[in-house]
Amino acid sequence: MIRLSPQLRAAIQRTTLPVLILLSAAIIVLGKADRMLFDSLSAFTADRLAPALATVSRPLGAVGDVIDRVRGFVGTYEENLRLVRENERLLRWQQAALDLAADNQKLRGLVKAVPNAAVSFVTARVIANSGGAYVRTLMIDAGKEQRLARGQAAITGEGLVGRLTEVGNRAARVLLITDLNSRIPVVIDSSHTNAVLAGDNSERPRLIYQSTADGVKIGDRVVTSGEGGVFPPGLPVGVVSAIDAGGPRVEPFVELSQLGYVMIVDYGLSESLPQPVPFVERPGARSKAAAAAKESAAR
Amino acid sequence: MALKVFSIPALPRVNGSLARLLPIATTLVAALVTILPLRIPGYAALTPAFTLMAAYHWTIYRPDLLPPLALFAIGLAEDLLVGAPVGVTALLLLLTYASVLSYRRYFVNRTFPFVWTGFTLLTLCAMLALWALHCVLDATLLDFRTTIFRTVLTIAIFPVASFLLGRTQRALMSAS
User: For residue B73, what pLDDT is reported?
Assistant: First the structure.
């Protein structure tokens, strides 16, 4: 080991702090200038720490289960009555759904409709969330090893949770629909009004860019429209719960702060999401692409 | 700015590698607790700034055992894990360290209410700065209410954190 003189060591010790402060500031600016710059580093960190986080969050999940169970015991009788009533109602709906499904099948056959793409899904555990007021993300303990890819939808039985933004080998990040950077093309079920569901870090995202001015009422159901090709059409998202100065607000069907598990669904659509531009540009790649474009134009 | 401000005071030597690692280890645990998925409604947004508490505590009592490089690394790792703008937590922790270190002599050997008041001031400044920084980074005016609740929660939880940190500190450091 190199032996430093006491003066030099003291000098290093004194300058570390200012240098690191400046470095942090520089990193913030760099990260802002190029959003993709830290994505791979972030995925790498998540990958390395995923096993540790999974281990630590497991007992927490158990504690949550115990609390749920105790809460469940308290209201068992009322819950049972409610479920019996609900079951009666749902059986009627089931009959209706079966009739409609049979009809649908017949009609699809008549008009030779293209069948829906095959769907595969992976269930993953939530191992970390974004502690803090400025981002709304989750980390899950599945990644490329489970064939997850950027852009796939995260859902639960109730509805849409978000989409994958970074995928490592063993961990991936879900951008929740409430995050400031989340924009999802949706449609109002009853009036077929198209809109974009824009997160603003609050519990209830807003609807912006509505195709018709008065097509939204409180209580309307909001589902994905499938426009832009990232999500399939018809995934349940939430209910319009209020209309204030900033526009209608949507209460998500999923209780986003209480998620233990999410399903990542592959609808085979993730290729349509623009892929991150590689940081290092290969020499000649652009000119080759330009030449190819020119060639195809000449034809 | 005079670099003398950043010089670390001479403190009684702590033997035992476990005790020497305590400040770094507890700050790391604080970062971990911040991102653990507790299933409490609305908790994620209001998670108290645990790392800030650890950084404040150790800068006052054992700044010699909390190297800025460790704060930098922990802050960076936390940002990378939660998907926040990278560098923000690192900058926050380092600035906390720098500012508390320069006022450190007013806080050592004082009663807890005094230390708590110091933390309150620090948290108010830190949360306001964080809010302003995120507004600039996202180029929008962000909702200030969440920040207020988070600030209040952080200040309210500090006595518990301080008690736990102080207990571990006494248990491990005086024994060695």
Answer: 92
